[in-house]
Amino acid sequence: MxxxxxxxxxxxxxxxxxxxxxxxxSDPATNERTDADGATGPGHDDAAxxxxxxxxxxxxxxxxxxxxxxxxxxxxxxxxxEQIERSLLGRLHVTSIPGSRLWAWLGPALVxxxxxxxxxxxxxxxxxxxxDETYYVKQAYSLLVLGYEGDWxxxxxxxxxxxxxxxxxxxxxxxVHPSVGKWMIAAGIRLLGVDSPWGWRISAAVxxxxxxFMLARIGRRLFSSTLLGCTAxxxxxxxxxxxxxxxxSILDIFLSFWVLAGFGALLLDRERYRRQLAKAAAVEISTxxxxxxxxxxxxxxxWWLLVAGVCLGLASGVKWSGIYAVAVFGLYAVAWTISARxxxxxxxxxxxxxxxxxxxxxxxxxxxxxxxxxxTWLPWWLxxxxxxxxxxxxxxxxxxxxxxxxxxxxxNSWWEYHLKMWEFHNNLTSEHxxxxxxxxxxxQWRPTSFAWRDVKADAGAMDLCGAERCAGAILAxxxxxxxxxxxxxxxxxxxxxxRRRDWRAWAILAGYLAMxxxxxxxxxxxxxxxxxxxxxxxxxxxxxxxxxxxIGPADVPLRERRPGIWTAAVIVxxxxxxxxxxxxxxxxxxxxxxxxxLHMLLPTWV
Length: 606
Description:
Elements: E1 24-26, E2 33-35, H1 61-69, H2 81-91, H3 101-120, H4 133-146, E3 150-152, H5 157-161, E4 168-172, H6 180-192, H7 197-223, H8 226-237, H9 240-247, H10 252-288, H11 303-318, H12 322-343, H13 349-375, H14 378-382, H15 391-397, H16 409-426, E5 448-456, H17 461-465, E6 469-476, H18 480-500, H19 503-515, H20 536-551, H21 558-586, E7 590-592, H22 593-598
Antiparallel strand pairs: 1-2, 3-4, 5-6, 6-7
Helix pairs in contact: 2-10, 3-7, 3-8, 3-9, 4-6, 6-7, 7-8, 7-9, 7-10, 8-20, 10-11, 10-12, 11-12, 11-13, 12-13, 12-19, 18-19, 18-20, 19-20, 20-21
């Protein structure tokens, strides 16, 4: 397996946490034997390598730990500030991306246009509320009319679809998710009207389309390749889970959108911080010969972490599962900060990374997310008729002492509402036909059917699909080539993260740690495979990681790379073919029943 290299020749491997492997070259400025990343090689500051005919002494665990904790000694005598900065950027694995600026934007735009077609075509089918649209679309409409989620009479879906909204009551409804996603649905209803399925679903479609564009840019930055970024975006564009969830107006696509936006902001912060660190360190080294401050340079506000905090706060305001992304991405920001300090030779890199930059980084992201989440509840606080808004006041009126009486009534009522939601989510164990377990999500063991209709000849099947029996379905199942391939790819990603210390692999695993692993703690609850729409971007990045390995680095002769390139091309083409095959049952098209059966690759898909 090849180790991919960046366009500048520095290995895309995060080797900051331990001993590194270096490629020795000649330093043109000093004529010394140096490593490719700029550190002087053995014979200058480090002990010489043992003679190959003599066995090297065994290195104990404690010795290896001391070596890992020791900052590398970097010598840049005789180098200019620009040369030092370029060398430090190589050590920090910050690379320029080859290719034209035009294609950096045009490529993602073309893939996004293709994704838009798949998400907007026949968006009004079916012309009725399906699955949990019965909750979220009506709650969104209620927010527009009442300013809070009102209660509805039992089974009002047919009336709602027919334009009769008289079933809405002014009594507040007990809802178990925050309102950000519903306000986003409401924006589409306000734009296109509540009397059309287009109005119900346009917001979901738009954020799904934008997600494809964001992933193209994120993948481009992650893999230092516009082609690979567009490949990842193409996989997202044609995946069944993401297509279906972009065409159905429920909350999870909005959660996925904000988590992906937060992840993109985290990557931008990583690059911007490391560029600033390299520049500041280069200035100090070129002026004084070394870093005088054992804690390293002082840097400014990390604005992209604030942006990430806002995005993740909004994600948590859609569904509480966004909180896991806040925690994981916050820890990643600290870890990347600490490793960056070590890479530039900061002597007290652990303390400096943790205290000077790491703690502020965590505080920039996590409290910002928390504050954003709290602010999303402003409409609830401002409307006295919101559910549970007057809870503390009502308890006081009964001459009873409420719990947490030391809190202001408005805050106590809000906290009590959160306790009720927490109790609901932790006790949701009712049986459901399509409930599934997290262990089966990566292989799409039990996908969710959002809609199903079966029409036979005597009911007009011939007119619908030209067969004696027709099926109309919306099955939220992922593209098997993508999901099954990515499950295998995940093994390589984990290996690369642990063995190579490849920061790109760790970045991809952040999504799995935040959006997948926590669900194993709730396996006894009523949960569904479509929750993985928030995981899909990281699934396709894992598959793209393997594509990058197959294609190989550009400095390898084409004849050696050709087999891998052909293999990668076959994977992409197969994914496109499978997507075309499954498109009818992702988009509620009428098809012959026998054709529908061909799509049921596993018995658990029926």
